[in-house]
């Protein structure tokens, strides 16, 4: 039996449905390992066959080109990678756990601290990789340690200090994130429920969730007090459309897939935004989304 058949590796796997932007070509090879042993075997087999390895979470904050993904794309989607457990005020969760499930688990304990992630359609692993956050809060602030696998198949634990979280960045780029321990605090269920509702309402009021999107496209520039969305709006670009991609009228830092948009439509809009903002405000916007070309 070939390793591809043994590990249920699919070829030429469509990826549009695996991203929140609903854009992207196929993965050359795609697999969802059942556990650590299979993940390690996949890594080793990819190495033997000179295949680059990538990992995808829920596919938010991600733009995949029409050419798709070369090599092996891994999704940690089995129950093993979605386990959530509790010890004192610490929650340990697999990287494949959806943020919504994590928030619900904490609420039932009742533990507070992660409500600000309510409404983000991502996994814990994806959130850790980019140090996801909003309204002055970041997931990295909650981390005690993260269990990772390197691309040779070795497993280790990293402390928050070793990871060096910063604005929309982490030191986890050279690893496959397996799980994390987060430190939360006791709170009444009533307060936690109110927090969750408040954050979801904030999102609904400020973000355009009616069309497929990848979340905020650009990072807020550190050199200015204004956020990226405000800068784009001041350049008069709300509603600007190229192909099937359009800058949101509700939040200018969102690009929406309004119907059969492709990656090039989004990239052209991003280039236009960067040019206009650079010309008007003398600042170069840095992408917040990952771009796989």
Strands, helices and their partners?
Elements: H1 3-6, E1 10-13, E2 27-31, H2 36-48, E3 53-56, E4 62-64, E5 69-75, E6 84-87, E7 90-94, H3 99-107, E8 111-112, H4 124-130, E9 133-134, E10 137-138, E11 143-150, E12 155-159, H5 160-163, E13 175-183, E14 185-186, H6 189-206, H7 228-234, E15 241-242, E16 245-247, E17 255-257, H8 263-281, E18 290-292
Parallel strand pairs: 2-5, 3-5, 4-18
Antiparallel strand pairs: 1-2, 6-7, 7-13, 8-14, 9-10, 11-12, 11-13, 15-16, 16-17
Please characterize this protein's 3D structure.
It contains 8 helices and 18 strands. The protein is an alpha+beta fold. The chain folds into 3 domains: 3-75, Uridine Diphospho-n-acetylenolpyruvylglucosamine Reductase, domain 2, CATH 3.30.43.10; 80-204, Uridine Diphospho-n-acetylenolpyruvylglucosamine Reductase, domain 3 (2-Layer Sandwich), CATH 3.30.465.10; 208-292, Uridine Diphospho-n-acetylenolpyruvylglucosamine Reductase, domain 1. The strands form 6 sheets. It has a 5-stranded antiparallel beta sheet. The protein has a 4-stranded mixed beta sheet with strand order 1-2-5-3, with helices on one face. Strand 6 (84-87) and strand 7 (90-94) form a beta hairpin. It starts with a helix and ends with a strand.
């Amino acid at each position: 039996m070939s390793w591809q058949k043994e590990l249920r590796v699919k070829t030429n796997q469509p990826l549009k449905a695996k991203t929140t932007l609903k854009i992207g070509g196929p993965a050359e090879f795609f697999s969802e390992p059942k556990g650590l042993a299979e993940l390690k075997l996949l890594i080793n087999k990819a190495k033997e066959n000179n295949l680059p390895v990538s990992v995808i979470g829920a596919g938010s904050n991600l733009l995949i080109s029409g050419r798709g993904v070369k090599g092996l794309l891994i999704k940690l989607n089995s129950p093993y990678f979605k386990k959530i457990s509790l010890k004192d005020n610490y929650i340990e969760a697999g990287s494949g756990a959806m943020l919504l499930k994590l928030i619900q688990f904490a609420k039932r304990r009742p533990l507070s601290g992660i409500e600000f992630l309510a409404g983000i359609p991502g996994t814990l692993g994806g959130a850790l990789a980019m140090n996801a956050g909003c309204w002055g809060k970041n997931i990295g602030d909650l981390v005690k340690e993260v269990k990772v696998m390197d691309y040779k198949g070795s497993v280790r634990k990293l402390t928050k200090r070793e990871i060096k979280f910063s604005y929309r960045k982490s030191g986890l780029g050279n690893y496959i994130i397996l799980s994390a321990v987060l430190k939360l605090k006791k709170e009444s269920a009533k307060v936690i429920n109110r927090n969750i509702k408040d954050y979801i309402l904030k999102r609904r009021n400020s973000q355009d969730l009616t069309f497929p999107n990848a979340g905020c496209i650009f990072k807020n520039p550190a050199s200015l007090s204004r956020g990226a969305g405000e800068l784009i709006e001041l350049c008069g670009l709300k509603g600007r459309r190229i192909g099937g991609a359009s800058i949101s009228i509700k939040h200018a830092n969102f690009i929406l897939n309004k119907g059969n948009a492709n990656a090039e439509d989004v990239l052209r809009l991003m280039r236009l935004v960067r040019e206009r903002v650079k010309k008007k405000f003398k600042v170069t916007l840095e992408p917040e989304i990952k771009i796989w070309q």
